[in-house]
Amino acid sequence: MIRPILRYGERPLHAPAADVAAFDDAFQRLVDDMIETMYAAPGIGLAATQIGVSQRVFVIDLSLGRSTGQLIVMANPTFVAREGTQLEEEGCLSAPGFNATVIRPQRVVVSGFDRHGAEQTIEGKDLLARAFQHEIDHLDGIVFIDRLRGIKRDLIVRKIQKLKKSGKW
Ligand SMILES: [Zn+2]
Fold first, then answer.
1. What is the distance between the alpha carbons of residues 98 and 88, in angstroms, rounded to a whole number?
2. What is the distance in A from the centroid of ligand 1 to the CA of 7?
3. Fewer CB near the terminus (10 Å): N or C of the chain?
4. Ligand 1 center to residue 44 CA distance, Å?
């Protein structure tokens, strides 16, 4: 089932999520819904907090579902390593129409659990490292706009407030 994606400013998106406690049927349905919602958007990543579910799980597929074996489901992630920096343009399904350059690590190693509760460790470089950091930020209640500083951030937040007032957000 495709779930509505929360937008910047909607409360649940800005609160940290709790660890996944059980890899049960309800969790499998949540993961299926997240994958379907991500592909439908389309996006390369989606965190549970973006559909208003306060659980530490995200999905990533850099191929947008075009190639098999690219789908990552990661629950209760922690960073094992974070190295280097990259500065690239970034967007978010919770802030459609807005992009900004964000400093991210160039390489990360993330440990956690797959959808069935098996431990997994995945290395990500470049875009995948960026996606990992972006999604784990979501689980901590952080949207990429929150990572911006000064005028850049103010400008986007003001535009969003304007859209909200006119009922377009
Ligand atoms: Zn996002």
1. 14
2. 10
3. N
4. 9
Q: Are 80 and 121 in contact (CB under 8 A)?
A: yes
Helix (H, G, I), strand (E, B) or coil at 46: strand
pLDDT in tens, 62-100: 999 999 999 999 999 999 999 999 999 999 999 999 999
- Which residues hold their Cβ within 5 A of ligand 1, which is an ion? 92
Q: How far is the CA of 53 from the centre of ligand 1 (A)?
A: 14
For residue 15, which of 112, 127, 146 has the smallest C-alpha distance? 146
Assess whether the previous peptide bond of 77 is cis (omega < 30° from 0). no
Please identify which residue in the block is written with the tokens 């900004």. Answer: 100
> Of the listed 10, 119, 123, 135, which one is catalytic?
135
Q: What is the distance between the alpha carbons of residues 71 and 78, in angstroms, rounded to a whole number?
A: 18
Cβ count near 161 (within 10 Å): 12
Q: How far is the CA of 135 from the centre of ligand 1 (A)?
A: 6
Give 112-163 pLDDT, tens digit per residue.
Answer: 999 999 999 999 999 999 999 999 999 999 999 999 989 999 999 999 999 9
Contact 29, 53 (CB under 8 A): no
The pLDDT, as a whole number, for residue 129 is 98
Q: Is 123 known to be catalytic?
A: no
